Amino acid sequence: MPTALVSGITGQDGSYLAEFLLKKGYRVLGMVRRSSTVTFGRIEHIQDQIEIIQGDLHDQGSLVSIMEEYRPDEVYNLAAQSFVPTSWNQPVLTGEVTALGVARMLEAIRLAHPKARFYQASSSEMFGKVREVPQKESTPFYPRSPYGVAKVYGHWITVNYRESHDLYACSGILFNHESPRRGLEFVTRKITHGVARIKLGLADELRLGNLDSRRDWGFAGDYVEAMWLMLQQDTPDDYVVCTGETHEVREFCEAAFSHVGLDYRDYVVQDPRFYRPAEVDLLVGDPAHAKNKLGWVPRVSLAELVQMMVDADLQYLGREVL
Ligand code: NAP
Ligand code: F7E
Q1: Which one is catalytic: 15, 122, 123, 124?
Q2: Contact at 8 Å (CB) between 248 and 191?
Q3: pTM, full prediction
């Protein structure tokens, strides 16, 4: 039975990846940071099948100890400060966790267990003010937020450890992926949760920022398979993971409201509080490398994703209303 260590297991992607690895027969170790309240909502249903161990990307010693004690075959580094607006308010913390945290994890592997295969959760936010359309593995980076800048460091330190220390290390450049488990502050979930609240009579408006920006949105459940595939190849490489389609935030609103028979124009209010100091206007990836080398293709369409998320929020909030 192979062993996988997942940092960020309490997050959206960590929960889907853990489910996926359990189905494949892995022993799954979930690294969590200490907090005063329980943050296991997304993994409650599989908690008895995974081993929770304490570690923090701020703390080098904890990572080395984990590698020495558990000697995982695969390490998926999903932990990060991942919300882009927070990165302007907390740029140093974002750099500590999202950038230097990657170096700490790689150092722990290099020092204690260099045979481990390593996956780094890189991001399309690295492309920022895009240099070409669509974006692929060779597209130059131009990050537009402290988060994007931190992810560029994480990407290059992964490439560097592969080239300098001969580690099996991959950087997955994932475009936005969503699900009913997405954090409430990200725009897709904010919209589907808002639609459900309005439909159930709990709210009468939804305040959003820039409706013109375009994203290449996929389903998180599909994207975790690509992470795993990257670590099953003969040689390590970097991959863009995306759908190849782009849509405006406005279109996502339109689809979510119309799924419950409403017109978004009657409810959405644009609020300058949600505009960003620098925006990423357009993201659309080219999934050819992942398709050709990994055989990976996304399964869930955007229309299906929107419906899945709205239905899940209606069910979730409906239970609370009753
Ligand atoms: P998420 O839901 O925000 O989860 C982030 C996880 O990181 C949580 O489990 C969090 O733990 C953990 N974490 C934060 N700081 C930590 C620290 N100092 N030490 C240990 N754990 C820490 O993020 P996600 O959407 O699942 O994304 C997973 C990864 O992919 C992130 O690195 C993100 O930047 C990257 N990414 C995401 C997308 C996307 O569209 N979702 C696209 C590209 C890349 P707590 O529960 O304790 O807060
Ligand atoms: O914003 C616009 C906003 O916060 C998407 C993270 O997982 O994906 C995510 O980063 C767009 C932006 O995601 C609101 O201005 C409008 O243009 O859902 P988001 P993100 O910033 O793209 C990447 C790939 C990651 O790596 C990140 O970790 O939507 N937008 N109105 C809004 N965004 C938010 N959050 N809230 C609004 O009210």
Answers
A1: 123
A2: no
A3: 0.98
Task: Tell me the CATH number for domain 3-177+218-241.
Answer: 3.40.50.720
Atom of ligand 1 nearest to the CA of 147: 34
Whether CATH 3.90.25.10 fits 182-215+245-283+300-321 = yes
- Residue 79 Cβ inside 6 Å of ligand 1? The answer reads yes
Residue to mutate, 5, 6, 10, 13, ligand 1, most ligand atoms under 8 Å from C-beta: 13
Q: Please tell me the distance between residue 100's alpha carbon and the centre of ligand 2 in angstroms.
A: 23
CB burial of residue 132 (10 Å; 0-12, 13-18, 19+): exposed
Instruction: Give the whole-angstrom CA distance, residue 52 versus residue 72.
Output: 14
Residue tagged active-site, from 26, 76, 119, 147 = 147
Which pLDDT tens digit goes with each residue over 266-289?
A: 999 999 999 999 999 999 999 999
User: Is residue 33 within 6 Å of ligand 1 at its C-beta?
Assistant: yes
**Over pLDDT 90: what percentage of the chain?**
98
What does the domain layout of the chain look like in residue ranges?
A: 3-177+218-241, 182-215+245-283+300-321
147 counts as catalytic: yes
- Give tens-digit pLDDT for 162-187: 999 999 999 999 999 999 999 999 99
Q: Which residues contact 81 (CB under 8 A, 6 or more apart)?
A: 87, 90, 93, 94, 97, 98, 147, 150
Calpha distance 301→136 (Å, rounded) = 21
* Contact in structure between 75 and 5 (CB atoms under 8 Å): yes
CA of 208 to the centre of ligand 1 (A): 23
**C-beta of residue 240 within 8 angstroms of C-beta of residue 173:** yes
